[in-house]
Amino acid sequence: QNSEPPDVQVEVAQLQDMVNKCLKAALKGCPCSVLQNGERVSSRYFVDEALEKVTVASFNSPTKLEIVVPISGIQDIFCVPEDGEAAFPAEAISMLQQSEKDLLLMVVFQGLQREYGKFSLLMDSKEGRDGFMEAMRVLCVASRFNAEQSSSSSGRQGGAVRSGPAPGGKPGGVAPPAGGKAADSSAIPRQQVSVRFFMRSIGIKALQQNGPEHSKKCPLPELIRDGVVPYISAFGYRPSDDMHWELLRAENTAAVRPTISLRVRQHFEAAKHTWYIVETTLRMDKTGNVPRLDWLAPRRLAHMRAHLHDRIKEILGDSYGRHFAGTNF
User: Fold this and answer.
1) What is the Cα–Cα distance from 21 to 166, expressed in whole angstroms?
2) pTM exceeds 0.85 for this model
3) Could you report the per-residue pLDDT of 36-64, keeping only the tens digit for each?
């Protein structure tokens, strides 16, 4: 049962609905204008189906432009109500009527070639402005995790994605996931659970697939069904429910067991709540180049207390104090 006060539940539902509408529309294209060189260019912005890029392209305008921004490269998004007019180019501000200034955004990003850029974007309504900012805030967290995973898996070095919050408390980077020593991580094959799971975990359902295979009721949570089960079944395990697993093959011994690592060190604001990012790694305790499964689990503090802390404490019983002596929740 939801323990939040009714007014908070209404606010959360409204914000989730706003983001859902924005993402659904962004897949087809949302109207906006780009302010550049003293000109207001009628445009549309799109989010690709892989949730990796935002493209702003001119629409019904004699001026042709196209701006492609990797979502993982978004460093900051400024808006006049939060950051003031001084944060924007004077040329852009001078082009607007007073009633339009609250609809102005400035996106600061790092491009695919590591170059930095920024552009001024005028939205068509306050709802469109807020939906864009909320959607980008959520997507930034997920896409930066995926970007770092891909970079680490390919063995590249360097920090194209910043860790920690971006200036002004805007969308910030997500540090690499827990699990394994840094020297070994690039050599370990990885599987990843789709970013769409991450989105739906915080109530964003705009991108949920509605095919017949997804409409069937399944006794297992989606993460386990679509991520953990395919991974761990290769080692002879089968789930009997979401809390118990059976070992099918007799040749598997106690030495080959799943090990899970969890680390909480990032958070972000969405839907009027603080969400903590549980960086999770599942791997088999086996010698050799064994693949690992990585995913992000966005959770509120109440979720982690009820479904992680309290369950572990119940399972360990009297030995809990021995394992976690001096460690506060």
Assistant:
1) 26
2) no
3) 999 999 999 999 888 889 999 999 999 99
| Cβ proximity of 96 and 106 under 8 Å | no
Residue length of the chain: 329
pLDDT at 115 over 80: yes
* Residue partners of 290: CB distance under 8 A and separation at least 6: 188, 283, 284
Q: Enumerate residues 6+ apart whose C-beta is below 8 A from 151.
A: 160, 161
The maximal CA–CA distance of the chain, rounded, in angstroms, is 75
Six token digits for residue 220:
């297992």
Domains of the chain, residue spans: 1-156, 187-324
Query: Can you state the percent helix, strand and coil of the chain, rounding each to 5?
Result: 40, 30, 35
Among 196, 194, 241, which Cα is nearest to 219's? 241
pLDDT of amino acid 248: 75
The total of other beta-carbon atoms located within 10 Å of residue 110's CB is: 18
CA separation, residue 278 to residues 8, 172, 174, 179, 239 (Å): 24, 16, 11, 12, 22
Say how many C-beta atoms besides its own lie within 10 A of residue 197's C-beta: 19
Using the predicted structure, report yes or no on whether residue 219 has a pLDDT greater than 50: yes
**How distant is the alpha carbon of residue 84 from its chain centre?**
28
The per-residue DSSP string of 151-184 comes to HHHTT--S-SS--BPPGGG-S-B-PPPSSS-HHH
Residue among 313, 307, 311 nearest 327 (CA): 313
Six token digits for residue 1: 């049962």
Written out in words, the top-level CATH class of the domain with range 1-156 is mainly beta
